[in-house]
Task: inverse folding
């Protein structure tokens, strides 16, 4: 799950952030039990995921990870992209990723009663270990990949996929550089069509 991308693409709108960050824990019609703005965040999350899955650059990028993780390649690509986003100085200039991360944690903590139970279970670990900021380091990405392996069926060892991440680092970064500006444009247009105008900056 690319938490950092979904957090950033919520454009600092708290209810949108809640829905966008927790959508993977909300199944089917249960989304209608949440407040309207959170439902909009859930819908945004799913639109982002669909755009990401359909993008031709990502179809090629996934082939890098497939030898190690098969059908889970998309999930590991999400983690890799959060690393490149965390280090993107056009997005997080002047080393403001830590401040943005703390804003996200504080916003979510103030609205935990609106979050699904499974997300509430993991949130203390997200905050304590500062997942969002730690995506910026390769050590943090290795830990994220290890966590994915622990939660995935049929995967035993994160070593091979992390080795591929390091070996193909420049290729993956180039894929991110081609993809993310198009994703950002897509989300800006989505906001104009479906939501309130996005707030400038982060």
Result:
């Amino acid at each position: 799950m690319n938490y950092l991308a979904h957090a950033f693409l919520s454009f600092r709108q708290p209810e949108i952030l809640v829905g966008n960050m927790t959508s993977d824990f909300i199944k089917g019609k249960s989304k209608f039990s949440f407040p309207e703005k959170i439902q909009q965040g859930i819908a945004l999350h799913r639109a982002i995921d669909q755009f990401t899955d359909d993008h031709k650059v990502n179809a090629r990028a996934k082939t890098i990870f497939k030898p190690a993780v098969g059908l889970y390649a998309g999930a590991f690509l999400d983690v890799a992209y959060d690393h490149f986003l965390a280090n993107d100085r056009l997005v997080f200039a002047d080393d403001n990723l830590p401040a943005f991360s703390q804003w996200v944690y504080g916003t979510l903590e103030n609205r935990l009663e609106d979050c699904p139970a499974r997300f509430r279970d993991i949130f203390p670990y997200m905050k304590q270990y500062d997942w969002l900021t730690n995506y910026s380091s390769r050590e943090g990405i290795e830990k994220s990949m290890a966590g994915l392996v622990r939660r995935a069926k049929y995967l035993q060892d994160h070593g091979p996929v992390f080795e591929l991440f390091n070996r193909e680092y420049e290729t993956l970064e180039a894929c991110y550089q081609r993809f993310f500006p198009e994703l950002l444009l897509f989300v800006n247009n989505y906001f104009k069509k479906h939501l309130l105008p996005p707030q400038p900056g982060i």
User: Anything to note?
Assistant: Residues 169-194 form the longest helix (26 residues). Residues 3-24+35-194 form one domain.
